[in-house]
Amino acid sequence: MPNTPNPAQPASGIDYDVLVCTYNGAEFIEEQLHSILRQQPAPKRVLISDDHSADNTRAIVNQVAQSSPIPIEIIDGPGRGVIRNVLTALPKTTADYVFLADQDDIWLDNKVALFAEKMHSEHSPHLIFSDAWVWHPDREEKHSFWELDQLRPDNARDPRRLAFHNTVQGASACVNRSLIAAMEPTAEHPDIVMHDWWLALIASGTGHIDYIREPTLLYRQHDNNQVGSQNKAGRKNRSLSHRRAIATRILRQAAAFADHYGDGLPLSCQGFFKHYRRALRGNIIQRGTFILRHWPKHRDMRHHITLWASIVLAKGVKPE
Question: Which GO terms fall under molecular function for this chain's record (predicted)?
Protein backbone atom coordinates (compact mmCIF):
# COMPACT_ATOMS: atom_id res chain seq x y z
CA MET A 1 0.00 0.00 0.00
CA PRO A 2 1.20 3.60 -0.57
CA ASN A 3 1.93 6.15 2.11
CA THR A 4 3.65 4.11 4.81
CA PRO A 5 4.35 6.45 7.74
CA ASN A 6 7.92 7.44 8.45
CA PRO A 7 9.20 6.27 11.84
CA ALA A 8 9.76 9.90 12.74
CA GLN A 9 10.10 11.60 16.08
CA PRO A 10 7.23 11.11 18.54
CA ALA A 11 4.88 13.89 19.50
CA SER A 12 6.72 15.19 22.56
CA GLY A 13 7.11 18.94 22.08
CA ILE A 14 4.64 19.13 19.17
CA ASP A 15 1.99 21.79 19.67
CA TYR A 16 -1.46 22.03 18.14
CA ASP A 17 -4.20 24.52 17.32
CA VAL A 18 -7.91 23.81 17.17
CA LEU A 19 -9.97 25.28 14.33
CA VAL A 20 -13.71 25.60 14.92
CA CYS A 21 -15.70 26.90 11.96
CA THR A 22 -18.96 28.36 13.22
CA TYR A 23 -22.24 29.49 11.76
CA ASN A 24 -25.21 30.21 14.04
CA GLY A 25 -23.83 27.80 16.63
CA ALA A 26 -24.95 29.59 19.79
CA GLU A 27 -26.94 26.64 21.10
CA PHE A 28 -23.96 24.29 21.38
CA ILE A 29 -20.67 26.19 21.00
CA GLU A 30 -20.03 26.78 24.71
CA GLU A 31 -20.22 23.07 25.57
CA GLN A 32 -17.89 22.21 22.69
CA LEU A 33 -15.34 24.86 23.67
CA HIS A 34 -15.22 23.62 27.25
CA SER A 35 -14.63 20.05 26.03
CA ILE A 36 -11.70 21.34 23.93
CA LEU A 37 -10.21 23.40 26.75
CA ARG A 38 -10.23 20.34 29.05
CA GLN A 39 -7.87 18.40 26.79
CA GLN A 40 -4.44 17.27 27.97
CA PRO A 41 -2.12 18.31 26.51
CA ALA A 42 -3.87 21.65 26.03
CA PRO A 43 -4.03 23.46 22.67
CA LYS A 44 -1.71 26.31 21.82
CA ARG A 45 -4.67 28.32 20.50
CA VAL A 46 -8.34 27.90 19.56
CA LEU A 47 -9.21 29.70 16.34
CA ILE A 48 -12.89 30.40 15.62
CA SER A 49 -13.67 31.19 11.99
CA ASP A 50 -17.19 32.56 12.17
CA ASP A 51 -19.07 32.60 8.87
CA HIS A 52 -21.26 35.66 9.58
CA SER A 53 -23.44 34.17 12.32
CA ALA A 54 -26.70 36.01 12.98
CA ASP A 55 -27.16 34.65 16.51
CA ASN A 56 -25.11 34.98 19.71
CA THR A 57 -22.27 32.69 18.64
CA ARG A 58 -19.59 35.40 18.81
CA ALA A 59 -20.81 36.76 22.14
CA ILE A 60 -20.69 33.28 23.69
CA VAL A 61 -17.21 32.63 22.31
CA ASN A 62 -15.99 35.95 23.69
CA GLN A 63 -17.47 35.14 27.09
CA VAL A 64 -15.67 31.79 27.22
CA ALA A 65 -12.45 33.45 26.02
CA GLN A 66 -12.45 35.91 28.93
CA SER A 67 -11.95 33.15 31.48
CA SER A 68 -9.85 30.81 29.34
CA PRO A 69 -6.11 30.42 30.05
CA ILE A 70 -5.77 29.33 26.40
CA PRO A 71 -6.06 32.04 23.71
CA ILE A 72 -9.34 31.93 21.80
CA GLU A 73 -9.41 34.13 18.70
CA ILE A 74 -12.31 34.92 16.37
CA ILE A 75 -11.75 35.69 12.69
CA ASP A 76 -14.24 36.41 9.92
CA GLY A 77 -15.09 33.53 7.60
CA PRO A 78 -15.57 34.17 3.87
CA GLY A 79 -19.35 33.75 4.04
CA ARG A 80 -19.36 31.07 1.33
CA GLY A 81 -20.24 27.91 3.25
CA VAL A 82 -18.47 25.36 5.38
CA ILE A 83 -15.98 24.10 2.75
CA ARG A 84 -14.53 27.54 2.04
CA ASN A 85 -14.65 28.47 5.70
CA VAL A 86 -12.46 25.52 6.67
CA LEU A 87 -10.03 25.70 3.76
CA THR A 88 -9.46 29.46 4.00
CA ALA A 89 -9.06 29.39 7.79
CA LEU A 90 -6.54 26.53 7.96
CA PRO A 91 -3.62 28.62 6.60
CA LYS A 92 -4.27 31.16 9.38
CA THR A 93 -3.29 28.63 12.02
CA THR A 94 0.35 28.34 13.13
CA ALA A 95 0.85 25.13 15.16
CA ASP A 96 2.53 21.91 14.04
CA TYR A 97 -0.86 20.15 13.91
CA VAL A 98 -4.40 21.51 13.63
CA PHE A 99 -7.54 19.76 14.84
CA LEU A 100 -10.81 20.41 13.00
CA ALA A 101 -13.81 20.69 15.31
CA ASP A 102 -17.51 21.04 14.61
CA GLN A 103 -19.33 23.70 16.61
CA ASP A 104 -21.97 21.32 17.96
CA ASP A 105 -19.99 18.22 18.99
CA ILE A 106 -18.37 17.32 22.30
CA TRP A 107 -14.81 16.01 22.52
CA LEU A 108 -14.15 13.11 24.85
CA ASP A 109 -11.52 13.87 27.48
CA ASN A 110 -8.88 11.53 26.02
CA LYS A 111 -9.18 12.71 22.40
CA VAL A 112 -5.96 14.69 22.11
CA ALA A 113 -3.97 12.20 24.17
CA LEU A 114 -4.89 9.46 21.67
CA PHE A 115 -4.06 11.62 18.67
CA ALA A 116 -0.75 12.73 20.18
CA GLU A 117 0.46 9.13 19.99
CA LYS A 118 0.18 9.36 16.17
CA MET A 119 1.80 12.78 15.72
CA HIS A 120 5.31 13.06 14.30
CA SER A 121 7.84 15.73 13.41
CA GLU A 122 7.99 15.33 9.65
CA HIS A 123 7.81 17.17 6.35
CA SER A 124 5.21 15.16 4.42
CA PRO A 125 1.45 15.76 4.54
CA HIS A 126 -0.15 13.88 7.43
CA LEU A 127 -3.79 13.43 8.47
CA ILE A 128 -5.11 11.57 11.51
CA PHE A 129 -8.77 10.72 12.06
CA SER A 130 -10.86 8.59 14.41
CA ASP A 131 -14.22 7.00 14.87
CA ALA A 132 -16.96 8.99 16.63
CA TRP A 133 -20.10 8.25 18.59
CA VAL A 134 -23.17 9.28 16.59
CA TRP A 135 -25.14 10.88 19.38
CA HIS A 136 -28.78 11.88 19.62
CA PRO A 137 -29.00 13.78 22.95
CA ASP A 138 -32.67 12.84 23.39
CA ARG A 139 -31.89 9.11 23.26
CA GLU A 140 -30.01 6.78 25.55
CA GLU A 141 -27.99 4.94 22.92
CA LYS A 142 -25.06 6.03 20.78
CA HIS A 143 -23.50 4.21 17.85
CA SER A 144 -20.17 4.03 16.06
CA PHE A 145 -20.06 6.40 13.07
CA TRP A 146 -17.91 3.91 11.15
CA GLU A 147 -20.37 1.08 11.76
CA LEU A 148 -23.46 3.13 10.89
CA ASP A 149 -21.97 4.36 7.63
CA GLN A 150 -20.18 1.06 6.88
CA LEU A 151 -16.81 2.80 6.67
CA ARG A 152 -13.53 0.94 6.34
CA PRO A 153 -10.91 3.37 7.66
CA ASP A 154 -7.98 1.58 6.04
CA ASN A 155 -9.39 2.49 2.61
CA ALA A 156 -8.35 6.08 3.35
CA ARG A 157 -4.73 5.02 2.87
CA ASP A 158 -5.30 4.20 -0.80
CA PRO A 159 -6.23 7.23 -2.95
CA ARG A 160 -7.67 4.89 -5.58
CA ARG A 161 -10.35 3.85 -3.09
CA LEU A 162 -10.67 7.22 -1.40
CA ALA A 163 -11.27 9.03 -4.69
CA PHE A 164 -14.77 7.59 -4.99
CA HIS A 165 -15.77 6.93 -1.37
CA ASN A 166 -14.80 9.18 1.51
CA THR A 167 -14.05 7.42 4.79
CA VAL A 168 -12.62 10.41 6.70
CA GLN A 169 -14.87 12.46 8.97
CA GLY A 170 -13.74 16.07 9.19
CA ALA A 171 -15.09 16.50 12.71
CA SER A 172 -12.57 13.92 13.92
CA ALA A 173 -9.61 14.96 11.74
CA CYS A 174 -6.24 16.49 12.57
CA VAL A 175 -3.79 17.74 9.91
CA ASN A 176 -0.19 18.91 9.92
CA ARG A 177 1.38 22.03 8.41
CA SER A 178 2.72 20.18 5.39
CA LEU A 179 -0.78 19.10 4.44
CA ILE A 180 -2.09 22.64 4.88
CA ALA A 181 0.70 23.95 2.62
CA ALA A 182 -0.04 21.28 0.00
CA MET A 183 -3.75 22.16 0.09
CA GLU A 184 -3.44 25.95 -0.20
CA PRO A 185 -2.99 26.24 -4.00
CA THR A 186 -6.26 24.35 -4.56
CA ALA A 187 -8.35 25.73 -1.68
CA GLU A 188 -10.66 27.60 -4.07
CA HIS A 189 -11.15 24.75 -6.54
CA PRO A 190 -14.83 24.61 -7.55
CA ASP A 191 -14.95 20.81 -7.75
CA ILE A 192 -14.18 20.10 -4.09
CA VAL A 193 -17.11 18.06 -2.75
CA MET A 194 -16.16 18.39 0.93
CA HIS A 195 -13.12 19.79 2.73
CA ASP A 196 -12.35 16.62 4.72
CA TRP A 197 -12.44 14.50 1.56
CA TRP A 198 -10.08 16.86 -0.29
CA LEU A 199 -7.59 17.02 2.61
CA ALA A 200 -7.71 13.24 2.95
CA LEU A 201 -7.03 12.73 -0.76
CA ILE A 202 -3.97 14.96 -0.62
CA ALA A 203 -2.65 13.22 2.50
CA SER A 204 -3.38 9.76 1.13
CA GLY A 205 -1.74 10.47 -2.21
CA THR A 206 1.25 12.62 -1.25
CA GLY A 207 1.85 11.81 2.41
CA HIS A 208 0.13 9.40 4.77
CA ILE A 209 -2.93 8.82 6.93
CA ASP A 210 -3.29 7.33 10.41
CA TYR A 211 -6.50 6.46 12.17
CA ILE A 212 -7.74 5.68 15.67
CA ARG A 213 -10.40 3.01 16.03
CA GLU A 214 -11.68 4.34 19.35
CA PRO A 215 -14.40 7.05 19.13
CA THR A 216 -13.00 10.35 20.37
CA LEU A 217 -16.04 12.63 20.24
CA LEU A 218 -19.80 12.78 20.52
CA TYR A 219 -21.06 13.58 17.02
CA ARG A 220 -24.24 15.42 17.86
CA GLN A 221 -27.22 14.88 15.56
CA HIS A 222 -29.91 17.55 15.36
CA ASP A 223 -32.15 19.24 12.81
CA ASN A 224 -29.64 21.96 11.92
CA ASN A 225 -26.52 19.89 11.27
CA GLN A 226 -24.49 21.46 8.45
CA VAL A 227 -23.13 17.94 7.86
CA GLY A 228 -24.78 14.98 9.58
CA SER A 229 -24.46 11.23 9.65
CA GLN A 230 -24.90 9.73 6.21
CA ASN A 231 -27.24 7.21 7.74
CA LYS A 232 -30.13 9.70 7.79
CA ALA A 233 -33.32 8.35 6.29
CA GLY A 234 -33.66 11.33 3.98
CA ARG A 235 -30.59 10.30 2.04
CA LYS A 236 -32.33 7.09 1.03
CA ASN A 237 -35.11 9.04 -0.66
CA ARG A 238 -33.05 11.10 -3.07
CA SER A 239 -34.31 11.32 -6.63
CA LEU A 240 -32.39 9.72 -9.48
CA SER A 241 -31.41 13.15 -10.82
CA HIS A 242 -30.09 14.15 -7.40
CA ARG A 243 -28.04 10.97 -7.15
CA ARG A 244 -26.61 11.51 -10.62
CA ALA A 245 -25.70 15.09 -9.72
CA ILE A 246 -23.85 13.86 -6.64
CA ALA A 247 -22.06 11.20 -8.67
CA THR A 248 -21.00 13.84 -11.20
CA ARG A 249 -19.55 16.01 -8.43
CA ILE A 250 -17.59 13.05 -7.06
CA LEU A 251 -16.20 12.22 -10.50
CA ARG A 252 -15.22 15.84 -11.04
CA GLN A 253 -13.46 15.99 -7.68
CA ALA A 254 -11.49 12.82 -8.48
CA ALA A 255 -10.48 14.34 -11.82
CA ALA A 256 -9.44 17.60 -10.15
CA PHE A 257 -7.32 15.67 -7.66
CA ALA A 258 -5.67 13.76 -10.50
CA ASP A 259 -4.98 16.98 -12.40
CA HIS A 260 -3.39 18.80 -9.48
CA TYR A 261 -1.68 16.02 -7.52
CA GLY A 262 -1.38 13.09 -9.95
CA ASP A 263 2.31 13.59 -10.71
CA GLY A 264 3.19 13.39 -7.02
CA LEU A 265 1.38 10.10 -6.38
CA PRO A 266 3.17 6.79 -5.77
CA LEU A 267 3.92 4.96 -9.00
CA SER A 268 1.36 2.29 -8.03
CA CYS A 269 -1.37 4.96 -8.24
CA GLN A 270 -0.20 7.16 -11.10
CA GLY A 271 -1.36 4.78 -13.82
CA PHE A 272 -4.83 4.53 -12.28
CA PHE A 273 -5.40 8.29 -12.26
CA LYS A 274 -3.79 8.92 -15.65
CA HIS A 275 -6.08 6.31 -17.18
CA TYR A 276 -9.04 7.83 -15.32
CA ARG A 277 -8.34 11.28 -16.76
CA ARG A 278 -8.02 9.87 -20.28
CA ALA A 279 -11.24 7.88 -19.86
CA LEU A 280 -13.23 10.96 -18.86
CA ARG A 281 -11.95 12.80 -21.91
CA GLY A 282 -12.78 9.84 -24.12
CA ASN A 283 -15.87 7.97 -25.24
CA ILE A 284 -18.04 5.37 -23.58
CA ILE A 285 -15.77 2.52 -24.73
CA GLN A 286 -12.72 4.16 -23.16
CA ARG A 287 -14.61 4.70 -19.91
CA GLY A 288 -15.73 1.08 -19.91
CA THR A 289 -12.17 -0.03 -20.55
CA PHE A 290 -11.00 1.95 -17.52
CA ILE A 291 -13.50 0.09 -15.34
CA LEU A 292 -12.55 -3.34 -16.69
CA ARG A 293 -8.86 -2.62 -16.24
CA HIS A 294 -8.89 -1.02 -12.78
CA TRP A 295 -12.23 -2.04 -11.14
CA PRO A 296 -12.67 1.16 -9.08
CA LYS A 297 -14.50 0.42 -5.85
CA HIS A 298 -16.94 2.05 -3.48
CA ARG A 299 -18.55 0.71 -0.28
CA ASP A 300 -20.11 -2.58 -1.42
CA MET A 301 -21.24 -4.32 -4.62
CA ARG A 302 -24.39 -2.22 -5.00
CA HIS A 303 -22.34 0.96 -4.71
CA HIS A 304 -19.63 -0.50 -6.97
CA ILE A 305 -22.22 -0.95 -9.72
CA THR A 306 -23.58 2.56 -9.22
CA LEU A 307 -20.04 3.96 -9.46
CA TRP A 308 -19.28 2.02 -12.65
CA ALA A 309 -22.52 3.18 -14.25
CA SER A 310 -21.73 6.78 -13.27
CA ILE A 311 -18.31 6.56 -14.91
CA VAL A 312 -19.62 4.92 -18.09
CA LEU A 313 -22.37 7.54 -18.37
CA ALA A 314 -20.11 10.43 -17.34
CA LYS A 315 -21.05 12.57 -20.28
CA GLY A 316 -19.56 16.04 -19.93
CA VAL A 317 -17.47 15.23 -16.87
CA LYS A 318 -14.09 16.37 -18.08
CA PRO A 319 -10.90 17.27 -16.21
CA GLU A 320 -9.46 20.75 -16.58
Answer: hexosyltransferase activity
- Residue 176: strand, helix, or coil: strand
β-pair partners for 219: 134
Q: Give the other-Cβ count within 10 Å of 206's Cβ.
A: 20
> What is the average pLDDT score of the chain?
90
Determine the pLDDT at residue 42: 95
Cα–Cα distance, 62 to 257 (Å, whole number): 38
Strand 208-212: give its sheet, edge to edge: 72-76, 45-50, 16-22, 97-102, 174-176, 126-130, 208-212
Tell me: the pLDDT tens digits for 4-38?
A: 444 344 445 789 999 999 999 999 999 999 999 99
Q: Which amino acid is at 13?
A: G
Which residue range is the domain that position 265 belongs to?
A: 238-312
| Mean pLDDT computed over 144-156 | 94
CA distance 193 to 251: 10
CA atoms of 55 and 72, how far apart (whole Å): 19
Q: 293 and 246 share a domain?
A: yes
pTM: 0.90
Q: Tell me the C-alpha distance between 309 and 291, whole Å.
A: 10
Which among 78, 79, 24, 81 has a CA at the least distance from the CA of 55?
24
Tell me if 2 is assigned to some domain: no
Q: How far does Cα 180 stand from its chain's mean position? A: 13
For the chain, the domain total comes to 2
Specify the DSSP class assigned to residue 226. S
CB-CB contact of 24 with 54 (8 Å): yes
Output the DSSP codes for 101-135.
Answer: EETT-EE-TTHHHHHHTT--B-SS-EEEEE--EEE
> pLDDT tens digits, residue range 205-250?
999 999 999 999 999 997 665 445 544 555 556 676 787 788 889 9
**CATH number of the domain bearing residue 67:** 3.90.550.10
